[in-house]
């Protein structure tokens, strides 16, 4: 691999070579972590307007020796690229289903929803819906307690195909959430036409609320109003302050998620916080 790259950048550039090696090492380590029990799910509470926990989002954590974590923001893109996202996504689905099944026997937890992130590549797999159906069946789960968070990027490809997949998932009874709404390729027509139960206002907009710029306030209040008119539950993520929470609730936002209510935490901490055994 010593030819010049596409832009005339030599690939033997030692820095670039080091980066390629590092990515490769990270991919190998991730593959081992998936198989060898090296991954964990953390849970972040989702609360209603009164601050009562109604569910949680499952977020992957990859602990390293020495107590450090590799952030999912770092390894999810790598997993997408390498195809590892498929075994990884399967691992997440299986573990959330196992957890939900256990919650069904715990009065303090049985009514909670558990949201999982679905990567675009995972969503586009031909057998994705069948896998979800199989997991629901095998664990005897109330389907609506499993929430799938999907980003708008799945609509960049074949929109009709994406619509069919969503409708098949909807038919299973699972809850569908549109993640990171307002970023990237947002289109209001997605909201109106597609069977989402929840829209998640991206944390980027929430973070800007305290600056009280008219444009930001207008965007947030408009998303909430639109969601409500369409009969969709509106959730704001990245809520860090009481002031943000109050603005959102006052404008009719149904659900909130963010450091103000709880950081992503180990499963046991989340369960203990709700008074479960
Ligand atoms: P996301 O789905 O948008 O998740 C929200 C991110 O915001 C999480 O970062 C969460 O820890 C963080 N967050 C929550 N509350 C606050 C807050 O109040 N302030 C700020 N500044 N941040 C907050 P995290 O856990 O590092 O995950 C990053 C991204 O990695 C996620 O973004 C998601 O896209 C992806 N990801 C995480 N777990 C999974 C997974 O199991 N599967 C897939 N496909 N992607 C995942
Ligand atoms: Ca998410
Ligand atoms: Ca999000
Ligand atoms: Ca995001």
Provide a descriptive summary of the structure in words.
This protein is of the alpha/beta class and 277 residues long. It has 11 helices and 10 strands. The longest helix has 22 residues, at 14-35. The protein starts with 13 loop residues before the first helix and ends with a helix. Residues 44, 59-60, 71-73, 76, 92, 117, 119, 179-180, 203, 237-240, 258-259, 264 line the site of ligand C2E.
Please describe the topology of this protein.
Blueprint (H helix, E strand, L loop, with lengths): L13 H22 L4 E9 L4 E11 L5 E2 L1 H11 L2 H19 L9 E5 L2 H5 L3 H11 L7 E6 L7 H14 L2 E7 L6 H6 L4 E4 L1 H5 L6 H16 L3 E4 L5 H9 L4 E2 L8 E2 H7 L4
Parallel strand pairs: 2-4, 4-5, 5-6, 6-7, 7-8, 8-9
Antiparallel strand pairs: 1-2, 1-9, 1-10, 2-3
Helix pairs in contact: 1-2, 3-5
The structure holds ligand C2E and calcium ion (CA) (3 copies).
Ligand C2E binds next to strand 2, helix 2 and strand 6.
List keywords for this structure.
binds ligand C2E; globular; 277 residues; 11 helices; alpha/beta
Strand content: 15-25%
What is the distance, rounded to the nearest whole angstrom, between the alpha carbons of the first and last residues? 57 Å
Largest sheet: 8 strands, mixed, barrel
Number of helices: 11
Number of strands: 10
Summarize the amount of helix as a percent range: 40-55%
Order of helices and strands: HEEEHHEHHEHEHEHHEHEEH
Bound molecules: ligand C2E, calcium ion
Mean pLDDT: 93
User: Which residues sit in consecutive blocks of at least 5 with pLDDT less than 50?
Assistant: none
What's the alpha carbon Rg, rounded to whole Å? 20 Å
What is the overall shape? Answer: globular
> Helix/strand-derived class?
alpha/beta
Protein name: Putative signaling protein
């Amino acid at each position: 691999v010593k030819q010049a790259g596409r832009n005339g950048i030599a690939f033997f550039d030692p820095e670039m070579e080091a980066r390629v090696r590092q990515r490769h090492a990270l991919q190998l380590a991730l593959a081992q972590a998936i198989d060898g029990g090296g991954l964990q799910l953390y849970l972040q509470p989702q609360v209603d307007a009164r601050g009562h926990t109604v569910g949680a989002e499952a977020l992957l954590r990859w602990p390293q020796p020495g107590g450090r974590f590799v952030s999912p923001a770092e390894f999810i893109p790598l997993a997408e690229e390498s195809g590892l996202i498929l075994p990884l996504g399967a691992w997440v689905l299986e573990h959330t289903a196992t957890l939900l099944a256990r919650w069904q026997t715990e009065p303090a937890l049985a009514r909670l929803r558990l949201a999982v992130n679905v990567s675009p590549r995972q969503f586009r797999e031909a057998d994705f819906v069948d896998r979800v159906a199989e997991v629901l069946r095998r664990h005897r789960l109330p389907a609506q307690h499993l929430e799938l968070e999907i980003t708008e990027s799945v609509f960049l490809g074949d929109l009709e195909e994406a619509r069919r997949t969503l409708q098949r998932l909807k038919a299973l009874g699972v809850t569908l959430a549109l993640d990171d709404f307002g970023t990237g390729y947002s289109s209001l027509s997605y909201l109106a036409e597609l069977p989402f139960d929840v829209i998640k206002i991206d944390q980027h907009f929430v973070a800007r609320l305290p600056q009280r710029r008219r444009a930001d306030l207008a965007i947030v209040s408009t998303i909430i109003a639109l969601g409500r008119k369409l009969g969709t539950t509106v959730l704001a993520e990245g809520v860090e302050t009481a002031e943000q929470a109050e603005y959102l609730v006052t404008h009719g936002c149904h659900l909130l998620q963010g450091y103000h209510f709880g950081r992503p935490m180990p499963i046991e901490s989340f369960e203990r916080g709700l008074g479960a055994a």
